[in-house]
Amino acid sequence: MSPVDTVGTKEGCLCFAALQVGYYNGKCTNTSADVETIVKNSRTSQFATDAMIIGQLIRLQFHDIFVRGCDASILLDGKSKEKNAAPNLNLKGYNIIDNAKSFVENECGTGIVSCADNIIVAIREAVVLFYSVTTGRRDGLISNKTKAELLLPAAEISVTDFIILFGNLGLNVSDMVLLIGGHTVGVAHCSSFQDRLYNYSNTGKAEPTMDSTLLASLKMTCPQNSMVDNTANLDQNTASINTIDNSFFMQIQKNKGVLGIDQEIDLDTRTNGTVASMANDNNLFLSQFGATMVKMGAVNVLLDPQGQVRLSCRSVN
User: Fold this and answer.
1) pTM of this structure
2) In whole angstroms, what is the distance from residue 241 CA to residue 190 CA?
3) Of the listed 43, 59, 63, 81, which one is catalytic?
């Protein structure tokens, strides 16, 4: 893929201009190896020992992009930074990016590959889909806890509000459904869906659309008034919880969505057509999911000479 013109405006910009496949070709001073290959090699042992990494990295990217775009602002340390916003307190995967950064710099040289690009390449390797990633991003200088708390979607968000939120980023309804399909891996904490089990819409009852077997299982995992915030798999197909595939869509068609938004996209006429298409064709989902990940990774990116290449992903230079 060659660079194409920028699409959109400053807010919600899909900034493909200057992003390109192979951006770092010839830029590594210590080796002729491709950056993506270096990142892939840094991942092999980690992926083999922790299957949860896939969902963790997808969620990390999602939370980064919703605040200031794809600029690695989520990685910055500090009490006032995004990392310490309430929706981000359970995020994981920072060590994966730190390891990738160290591995790349050992092979490629210091100050060449941005942390933002490390995130993008790491996720492509994690999901094991062979889509071409575009690189050339710079790292942001600003990370704000308050802004993250304002912009990141709540667990109980409606389909309408989610469509608006994605639209503000330059992403359409199909993009939204496909990216929610990333819930085919990963977990949710009880606090994110407990109202569906015990007090749906302040009725004092469970959500009536939820599959009864799932409801019973989730109540076992998440006892009412428990002080422990346990987790449940977002994909209720136990044979597929660590695999990127269309199983999640098939599960929500059976009323086995764990999060409210997961189930709502199968009930809403604006989104259930895409759900059905993805549920019926795994190859279609895989190809479109990869393309949408590329599209999401181009939201509000910083390009040279904007931003910087951080020497540490946890602090600005």
Assistant:
1) 0.88
2) 17
3) 63
Mean pLDDT of 270-286: 97
CB of 82 closer than 8 Å to CB of 94: no
Q: Which of 60, 78, 192 is nearest to 145 (CA)?
A: 78
Res 24: pLDDT:
85
Q: Tell me the domains of the chain and their CATH numbers.
A: 35-152+299-303 (1.10.520.10), 171-293 (1.10.420.10)
**Cα 269–Cα 264–Cα 170 angle in degrees, nearest 5:** 75
Note the Cα 9 to chain centre separation in Å.
23
Catalytic, 63? Answer: yes
d(CA 257, CA 307): 39
Give the pLDDT confidence score for residue 304 in this predicted structure: 81
∠ CA(248), CA(280), CA(122), 5° rounding? Answer: 50
Whether residue 1 is predicted with pLDDT greater than 90 in this model: the reply is: no
CB 245 within 8 A of CB 282: yes
Amino acid letter, residue 228: V
